Each structure stands twice: as C-alpha cells, then as structure tokens.
Amino acid sequence: MTTQMVGKPIQRVEDKDLLTGKGSFTDDIKLPGTLHVAFVRAPFAHARITGIDLDAARELPGVHLVMAAADLPAPAKGKRILLQVPNPAIVDPITQEPLVSERVAFAGEAVAVVVADSRAIAEDAAEMVMVDYDPLPTVANLAQATAPGADKVHPHLADNVAARIHVGYGDIESAFRDAAHTVSVTLDQHRGTGNPMEGRAVLSAPNALDGGITVWSATQAPHILRRALVDMLEMAETDIRVIAPDVGGGFGPKVQAYPEEFVIPICAQMLGVPVKWIEDRREHLLCTVQERDQTWSVEMALDAEGKLLGVRGRMRHDQGAYLPWGVIAPYISTVTMPGPYVLPAYDLETQVMFTNKVPTAPLRGAGRPQAVFAMERLFDLAADRMGLDRADLRRRNLIPAEAMPYSVGLIFRDGQPLIYDSGDYPRCQQIAEEKSGWADFPARREAALREGRYIGLGIANYVEGTGLGPFEGATTQVLPSGRILIKTGAAGQGQGNRTVYAQVAAEAFNVDISQVDVELGDTGKIPIGVGAFASRLMVNAGSAINVSAGTVVTKMKKIAAAAFEVSEDDLELVDGTVRVTGDQGPSLTFGEMAQMASGMPGYVLPGGQEPGLFATHYFSPPQAAYANGSHAVEVEVDPETGIVRIARYIVVHDCGRMVNPLLVEGQIQGGLAHGIGNAFLEKMRYDDDANPVTTTLADYLLPDADNVPTAEIYHVESPAPHNPLGVKGAGEGGTIPAAAAVVSAVEDALRPFGVQIDEAPILPERICELIDAARQNTQEAS
Amino acid sequence: MTTKSISLTVNGKTVEQEVEPRTHLADFLRHGIGLTGTHLGCEHGVCGACTVLVDGQAVRSCLMLAVQADGAEVVTVEGLAPETGGDDGLSPIQAAFREFHGLQCGYCTPGFLTSLTQLLMENPDIGEEDLRKELSGNLCRCTGYAGIVRAALAAAQAYKEAAASGMGGSR
Amino acid sequence: MKAAAFDYHRPANRAEALDMAGSLDNAKFLAGGQSLVAMLNMRYAIVDHLIDLNHVSDLAGIEMTGDRLRLGAMTRQRAVKDDTALAARAPIFAAALDYVGHFQTRNRGTVGGSLGHMDPSAELMALATLMDAEVEVQSKARTRTLSIADYPMAYMTPAIEMDEMITGVTFALPAEGHGWGFHEHAQRHGDFAVCGVAALMELAGGTVSRTAITVFGIGMAPQRARAAEDLLAGQTPGDDLYRAAGDALDDLDYTTDAMASAAYRRRLAGVLTRRALADAATRAGGDRR
Questions:
Q1: Which of A70, A119, A767, C255 could bond A36 through an S-S bridge, CB–CB 3.0 to 4.6 Å?
Q2: ipTM here
Q3: For the residues A73-96, what does the mean pLDDT come to?
C-alpha cells in the first residue's frame, strides 16, 4: 500500500514559523558588526554626471564608506552586469553598471553608495552627497521613442530600437486576401509593477578564513546571481556562496541580478564586515523592473463561417533603459498570440524600444497577458462585427482535444518547436460558459438594464508555456536518522515549495511529509541550479526529486533484497522500513540502511551498488509543458463614475496533474489578484520627462481585499506527457487572461453606449471619457 | 540628538532601552529587541505589514515612534499565541490561516494576524462584506485574499465562543 | 526610508506644550502621527523638534451641548466614529469617519491632526466645512478662534502660526430630524478621495428649509457648494432637483493632478452631490439610518 501524497490538499510545512514570527527573511538575519547602506539615486531620467562631491558625506560620524563609480575597486570598475539571456535579435546588449559612471538613463539609478552604522545615518550622509547633473533630453514612452528624429536613450546607438523580432508562419497574404471579414485594432497596455510585500534585500559577509564571500539575497535565482557575481568580481565559483533565505514574494522582478547585489558584496569585501541593504518601497517603485508596456496594432482575418484565416500586425515593447533579462518578455508575447486557437497564418513584426524608464523584464505572466489581451480583443471585436456570440466565435476556432499534440508552427523561447503537449481547450471554455451562465446572460443583462444597472460578462482563453528548462537538480538522501533530506537550488518565494517537494519525496518513500526535510536556495548545497521563474519549478525540480528519490528507493530495495535473500519485487516500503511485502518477517529501517550504505565496517554492499543512500538528478524537460485555461467574469459598471465592481469570477484551469490542489488554488487566486490590478487599478505613472509620479503605495494602487473576489475555480487535469509527475506550471495562469476577461466584461456592460476599450488598465476616468465620446458620436451621427 | 530611555511591555515582558527619537516602533521591535516577526512593507502607513497591538489596539508600528511606546503594552505576532496549549501553539486566527491557506510568502501575514485579532475580538459577528472593507488596510500580493477571508470568517467563530464563555480577554 | 534626526519632547500639559512651541525652532506638534510620521520617514518633512501631545491630558474629549459639538484636538478618530450619542444625533460623523484611512490608523489618528495636516481629501475637514466649524487655536500669548472659511491658507497649510496649537473644533450640528448624505469616490476603500460630497438637509412642510453641501478632494480645501444650496432652498425634494444641484457646481475650483483631471472631478462632484442629496432627503423623510 502506498500512501498517496501527490494530489492531496495538504497544509503547508512552511506555515507555523511564518505565522509565529519565526520566518527568516534577509533583514531578519543578524550578523555581528553589520553596517547599513543607502544609495544616492539620480533625480533625472536622463542626465550626464558632471561632478560628484563625497567629502561632506564622508565626514559625517558613523559613516564608514562613501563611494561613487570611480571609486569601485578592480575588477568591477568599468564593468556592466552580465547579460545571461543573450539573443541575436538584440542590437546592443546594454545592462546597468553597479554604480553609474557617466550617464544615468532612468530616474533612480544609483550613482553613489553610503555605508554607515545605521540606515538612518546612511540616509543622512546620502543627502550630503552633492552630484552635478547635466540633464539630457528624455524619451518617456513608446510614442516619443518611435517618433521621427526622436531623442536617443543611448546616444551611441543609431536609434531607440533595442531589438527586432519577426515571427510567423503560413501564407499571411492570401489569408487576408481571401478573408470574408477582417477587423483591426490598436491596443495600449500599460506597465505595472511586481511589488512583493518584501522588497529586494541584500546582505553580504566576507569570509575571513578563505577570502570568499557569502551573499544573502531576496532573489528568485541564487545560482543566476552567483554566476553574475563570478563575472563581476572575477572570483572562483566556489568562493561565492549565494543564499536565498525566506523571500517575501517575487513575481518575476527578483530573478535578474541588480546593481545593489554587486555593490553590497563589494562594500563588504572592502570593509571586511557584513553589509546590508534593504530596498525601501520608494526604491522598489523607482528601480525594480516593471513590465507590460506594449502597443499592438493587429488585424484578424476570418472566413464567412468565422474560422480564423490569419492574424498579422506589429507590436512595440517599451523596454526601459536597459536589457537586464534580454528580450524574453516581448519574445514570449509574440509566440503566445496564437493561443488555444487554430490559426493557419500568423505574422508579427516587433520592435523593442529603449525609453528612459526603469527596465522591463518578466513579471507574473511575462509578456503573455499582453498577447492574450490582443488576441481576445480581436475575437470580441470580430464577434460584434459579425453579429456572433463572443463565446461561439471562439468555440469555432478552439483546437480540438483530439488534435493534441498540436504544433503551432513557431519556436518557443526555450528554442524548441512550440508544440502544445496536452489539453482540452473546448472543454475548458464549455465549463466557463456553463458556470458563468453564459447562455442566459444577455437576458439578465437586459433585465438589469431595465433597473438601471450595467452588468457585463467577459470571457478569455489562454495557453501558457510553463515548466521551461534548461533543468533543475535535486539530491535525495536518506539520513542515518532515517529522515529524508531533499536539496535543490530551486527555492520559492511563498509558493509552498517545501511542502510540494516533500509531498513528492514522501510518496516515493511512502512516509508522511513530516519525515522529509527540504533545503532550498543555497548554492552551497547543490552546485548548479536555475531558479524560480516561468512557472517551472514543479516540472523541473519536482521531476528531479521524483527521479532521484526513485533511484534511492531502487537502491534501498537492492540492498534489502540482498540482506533478506528475496527478490526486490517482494519488498515494500512501510513506516520508514523496507520489509518483505505483507510479511512479519525481516525488515530494515531507513536509518539502519543509511548507516549500512554509508560505510559500516564488516558490511559489504551488494554487488554493483555504490556507497551512500543518496542520488542527484538534473531533470531537463524536452520541451515546455503547456497549461491552459478559460476565465469568465461578471462585472457591474457605474457609468456615472466609471467604477467597476467584479460580481463573480470563474476560473477553469488545467495545469496537468496537481500535486497539491490547495496550493494550486492559492496560486490561481493570487495570480488573479495581480491580473485584476492590471485590469483596472495598477498604473505606474510617469510625467513627460519620464519622472515617475506614483512612488508610494498610496499612489500606485495594489488590489485589496475589497476589490478582489474569491474566484470559483474548476480544474481540468490533462497530464503533461513530458515529465514523470505529469505536472504543468500553475504560478501565472491566474494573471494571464484576467485583464482580457475583465475588459471584455466591462465592454459588455457598456454595450448600450457602444464603447470599445483598447487599453489596460481601464481606469474609471477613462471609462467615463469613452462613454462621453460614444455619446458624442451617437449625437453627431443622428 | 539625544536618546531617550523607554520602558514598555512587549509580549508580556518588560523591556527597557535607550532609543533615538527618530526610531519608529517597528525598527525598535525588529532591531532594538530582535522581534523580527514584525515586517516593514512600505514605511509610509499604507501596506499594514508592520501592524502590532498597542494597548490592545492595532496600529501601524512604522507610524509610531518607539519613544511614544514608553509605558505601553505591545503585542507582536510573536506574542499572539498563548504560551502553552492552543492549537499547536497557534492562536485561533493563526491556526485558521494555516488551515485555509491564508498565507504564501508570509511577509504581510503578521499585520493581518494582529489586525484581525483586534477586529475579531471586537466584532466576531462581522460578515464577509464588512470584513473585506476592514481588511483593506492590509495589502497582500500573494494570496488574492481568498484564504485570508476564509480563515478570518472561520476564526471568528472561535472568538465568538471565547466571548460567550467569558474568555473575551484572551488572545 | 528613515526620518532625519530630531529631538523629542513630551509635555505633560498645555502650558508646557505652548512654552515649547514658543521657544523651539523648526518644531512640530505630534498628534496621532498617521500622516506626519509617514512624511518624516519619507523626509518630505524635516523637523528639529517634535512636541508630542499624547500626554497632554485635557486635549481629548467629545462634548455635545444642544446644537454644538466640540471635539478636543487629541480625540482619536476612532472615538468619534464609535461615539453612540453622536451617532444618534448626527450619523454623518460615523459615516464619514468610516472613510478616514483604516481602522488601524483611526486607532491613533486624531481630529486635530487631521485638521492640522489639511489633506485636500480629509473627511474631517469636509465635515468642518459642512457644519461651519470654528477651530480653536492657542499659543502662549493668546487663544483665538478661526472660522473654517478662514482656516485654509494654502495647499496643506492652515492659517495658523508656528507657535499655535489646535486645541479643539466646534461644529454647528444640524437640527434634530435632519437628513444627511456622504459619498466618496476612490478606487479602494480608505484611499484619498478623488472627490467626495457631504450633504445635510432639513425639511419643513415637504420643502427644503435648510441644506448644506460640501465638495472635497477636488482642490486645496473642501468647498461649500453655495449655488447648489441656494438652488435647493424652498424647493420640493426630487430627482430633478438633485440633478439641477449637481449641475450647479461649475463655480467650484477643481484641480488636475496625477490621479484625476479637473473635468473628471467636476463630473464626480455632480454625480455624488445628486446621490448625497437623494440620501439626505430620504433620511430627512424619516429614515434615520
């Protein structure tokens, strides 16, 4: 009998510490003699530094180090941060310097660092650093970046184009030539922020014994940070240890290495003591990567029956000033557009544009929400033009389940052909329609309208490439205590990774998860790793645990079979022992076996078995695992104020086999909240000179408990064929179609006015403007 | 600037220390006396992560100076559960958060727990709509609030029973 | 995000507090601190001295006598919201206070602090404007009273001197049996309102005998909608009348800022005035909720 662990809604092993204040976030780690940091940040979006005077700051009591770019020690001096995701599409792979030497390219870039006894003193001294700036012309947005004769973000480049990407397949010309219907639209999607409740944080301590250094960082990817540090500091990989302790949310922006993650270790090395920097909320809104700014001009061709013939157009991506994570996000956008639909021909020409703003890089959804928004907006528009029901038009084009695996005709960002591995897209939409009362809704909408209420129902579908490689590794070990130890580089930032990893291991060993210890996110514990992004950990690390645990179990059975002189097939693992199946005969505890295997004088392991009850496996998925889903949302709009209230939210979600449904639903609901923010709350405002305006949480509106409803979640489980657990990623599906679904619903609610919405977020004031404009048009037409 | 001597009770223990006037209560709790369960999310009073109980009332500890807590009785997330007994050493609201997956990264959680402790003790009959409105002073970026709301409504029952049995004063 | 250094003073009584205010340079009173400490943390405000009023005993209190309500400056916002006698006499206070930040900030935030900070969207300032309040201020040398009309001087700046302390505010309560309405527009509960409207209405013989309308969050300080008030006088309540009142708000000052345009604020003022008046009329008609 095997205790089923995978698939159960087990409570988290992480929770008790976090609920009683015993978590260990970076700022909770106390090292004796730690000094604290504040940065001097540029107040201009684009300016040349003509002088820096550090003297006054250096004289303030309690200050230990004040440093500008010119004071950086070799080899960091003059270097930029390593770009770890190169792409031939990139014109110039320009990344940030640890401290800006000559020219700042967005407001908030660090030009000097202060190390002091306390953060308060460091901030006192930072205010005393005098920097002379010569302001340069700024590029604040895509319109300015692409205008003829535009000012340039980087003067050494020919223009503001950071990369050109052209994807497509099929005969796009004939698709549009033969079309019975075409619709076109231009869509603006605005950048938002990550805003995990814990900002970024870095603590670094030099190791006096070996000259090495330890860096604790609130990072999603300790091994990626280590590689960047090796490049910057030119130290041996073994001399740099990066640890991700408890991390208070990530959502993407904590993946790439930031200037502060180099400056802090450098300061610690220079001073010979631990040095800590904790990002404050203003710094987060100024300096931590954002995402979503894109403009899409796209058109759709359909035949007389509403079958898709082709989609084509162009997209512009506002990259900000640098390329910390290459062009991953806009590339994902371009290949996400076809979605769950049979699309015979596709052509998208993309330009990634530099602007004088904080860089963009993947943020929960990673380019997909924009593509889904574009495709789903086209469907809504086409349905309205053709006089068809919006769900019906989609239904006519969904890839049928029997077509799986389905080759789209594109190359995904993992370099592999984009082949949907499994899924039943029509069924997901059907459930969304049923549960939302789609068929009856027009009547309900009419009835509400008679009471003066404007309600609307929206729908959106998506496919999401998850579980991207290249790999993640895990070591499974049976300890002499009999406990199971799992070590992996793949740490979470709140997703509950310890719990689900323990579930996978516990099932392999047929023990309770309380018998499993999990060590995460420490480059000192496992030599290589990738990180927590792209909804990839359950597929990669989960599978690595599954395989390595299976290897250990097989070995234990071989050892026990030899000891008991029975066949391996006659053995079972029960209650932390290996015994003859169903027998009251001989048994060995896991602990006894671990001791035997780790070298017990007088005992010889059976032939062919290497010592030790441990195994390491690096799981490399052959391709992405494609999750999918359908969202339906009912809203009520107050057309007088533009306020949108969500009445009901239905999520149909297929992430393959679920390891822990409780945690999957937590991911969906949390992702949805982010998507709702993108739909009608979150707007990072910049003025015309690219200065950020919304630099507090009173100005940048995060969703709260009062405007995020509890979603009704329905699961479809189409096992992933390319990993042993059958799992797909679940971290981003809640976010991806949310803006598309909400905007579809708002537009539906405003049908009496004939409003078309081409942007996200859709803010109350804009809703009122659109209604007024529509009324104006009606009056002029009549 | 001269430091001030303060004496206060934190989680039932008397604490005496010299503080700089500009040190807010959250930094004092975290770094002055090592109670790092209280987290700082924004330091300008919006996110609610730093909420603690001062004389039984939930307050933003980033908006109160440590020197102002002189003489006060402060309870942080570390002090919410009874020393012994309870559900695995958790208060009803803590236990409900675990049962209903009311936390993910756990960073905002202390603020929700302390806020809900006052809220549910004063109004254990609160309904979902009012609860959501009252919780709007605490931001969470992970959960989408569903687990938090479920946990709070479930825990309200425990506070109701405690109130009925005359144990209203206990946390 | 740490405050610049300052000295801290804790007067035990009014005289000590006023002595300090008169003698210390670049000093500020610290009341509830729910705005001031945030501004100090962000270094938007930098002071040399903070004079903490939390231990001055005679500054807090709610006194209702006839049609006058006096709130001591250090009365906590929570106390105002929870006061049952006040809720019975003038329910608009509890309704408005519900929008003041969140319960955690109301636990410490004070009436005087809100008036002194003078955020354009402050609900207590709106109520003071609605009910022709008088603000009592005191310095070592003198005590004086400012009518609320004379109180705002500039953006977030009341017309009081550095050495003056707000000690209380007195509201002229509407007659028993009045109706009231309070509407705010913000995307999240507890946020700074982009626009809000507070309204009072008294009826006599089926027509409007007295009304007061204050629009706030739209400019430097709350503004009385006098033209709309005049338009309502003596009229029979009804939707057309409320709509006309909402249309009669063009003479108010509306600001454009990062959160909203002046045009949008004007639109909201009209909508919320109409709704607040409708509520007020209903409540004046007997529904006292």
A1: A119
A2: 0.96
A3: 95
